[in-house]
Amino acid sequence: MLDLSDRLIVLVLAAALEAWAGYPDALFQRIGHPVSWLGALIAALDRGLNRPAWPEAARRTAGVATVAVLLGVSVAAGLALDGAAQAARPLGLVVSIAAVAVLIAAGSLDRHVGAVARALDAEGLDSARREVAKIVGRDPATLDEAAVCRAAIESLAENASDGVTAPAFWFLALGLPGMLAYKAVNTADSMIGHRTARHGAFGWAAARLDDLVNLPASRLTGLMLVAAAAVVPGASARGAWTAMRRDAGKHTSPNAGWPEAAMAGALGLRLAGPRIYAGTRVEAAWMGDGRADATAADVHRAILLYRVAFGGTAALVGATAVMAM
């Protein structure tokens, strides 16, 4: 495994590469993406091991086995990549930078959320609904303009933790094996970690483990947003801190409430709250106590706060790497 100073350098360079280039569409069309590969494996395990006729205890055990297989495959792949990087130093660092850039989503998240605001500005509500449907699971037809904007901001806050902070955290802690293991768990949770008749028992292990591995990143992301609010014009660090401490624990997720509440308090908004998934109304607590009538301008403000939070953190990580050399 690369030592910590190397991992710090790799992370900063990989984040910059991903923010600049993203993951090329042509490459995705040709070979897919590591997350889509994991998704295909999870789907195959779901078909093969999740038997509706089995009792709940057996399906839960099968779900535990599924997570074990995913962790084994992802850790083995990470060790292989780490081994290749070590064997071919210094050029092997390029392998690590490319791998980390593929597994982090800082720029991709920025672009997808920004597309919602740009669509609303340029083409109106129907176009914005189409864009927000790419990043949230709720029925876009039920969303008015304010709800579209809240959904985009909520997705930005939650995925800042799941898609950026968490994979970066586990890379710094455990290298590529840790980062790939995190992505495997997070992908499994998104696919099978639902409280439905099919996945309530089978997806139990994936959902519980995802809650655990996201715990440090969600708190860190909330704190990063609080810090960014102190320097972003019009944002409130005090509001972010107050909302995070007061409201994060009320969220239906043990982790999503931290960045969402911090974002809401920083921008003077209310986020989360009741929403509709697949025709079913989900009663959820509000994060923040500001305006619920979010606008495209608020989405742009949220993106600025996100950029300052993560750009500032990347600068600190880079400075730490230089000092450690």
TrEMBL record:
The subcellular location is: Cell membrane
Q: Identify the keywords attached in UniProt to this record, alphabetized.
A: Cell membrane, Cobalamin biosynthesis, Membrane, Transmembrane, Transmembrane helix
InterPro entries, A to Z: Cobalamin_biosynth_CobD/CbiB
How does the protein associate with the membrane?
Answer: Multi-pass membrane protein
Entry's family note:
Belongs to the CobD/CbiB family.
Q: Which organism is it from?
A: Rhodoplanes tepidamans (Rhodoplanes cryptolactis)
Xref: Pfam families: CobD_Cbib (PF03186)
Stated name of the protein: Cobalamin biosynthesis protein CobD
The organism's superkingdom is given as: Bacteria
Which residue spans traverse the membrane? Answer: 61-81, 87-109, 304-324
**Classification via NCBIfam families:** cobal_cbiB
Pathway listed: Cofactor biosynthesis; adenosylcobalamin biosynthesis
Q: What is the first-listed, main subcellular location in coarse terms? A: membrane
What function does the entry list? Converts cobyric acid to cobinamide by the addition of aminopropanol on the F carboxylic group.
Coiled coil region boundaries: none
